[in-house]
Amino acid sequence: MRQTFLCGLFVAALLCLPTAGTVHAQEAEDAPLDEAMPDDLPVADGAVAGRGSSTNLPVPRYVSLKSSEGNVRRGPSLEHRIDWVFKHRDMPLRITGEFGHWRRVEDNEGQGGWIHYSLLSGVRTVLVTEAQTELKASADERAQVVAIADEGVIGKLGACKRDWCEIETGGEDGWVEKKRIWGVDPEELRD
Prior knowledge:
With 191 residues, the protein is mainly beta. Helix content is 0%, strand content 43%. A 5-stranded antiparallel sheet has the order 9-8-7-4-10, with no helix packed on it. β5 and β6 form a beta hairpin. The protein is elongated and about 55 Å long.
């Protein structure tokens, strides 16, 4: 399979990363077409609204893809067919549901399904959503530009203020406006 690369010029170095995309799985001819996405799964005893029934962690929440490939299934078991294959390590994902060892996830385009928890990491990453996004020396519009990131570049998430988040990508570290990244909630604050 041919992979697409996005390149961004960071100070004097060229950084190329595979795009954070998905590949739609080819459906088997004999796969049942009436399998429904289980949106209304039973809630475990003691589960709290806004909390995962398996982990008691907040839902929704953001995580990242631990491996370079992750099968996303129609439902929370190996018996459900694969609808998507996420193809980029560290890709940020949003958990929207839990069932046992399975997490219902979606990407920045809203594509997703059920993935086994062992393929996910708690390490927070973000996806740059706009071309020529400036990374600044501080969380200020007038601050010096330290790097430029292209759309599709993934960075490790650091601190977040009201309108800015610190990210690290390609050996560069800088502050980005929240509205130019996906993988953090607009009101989220981090130290």
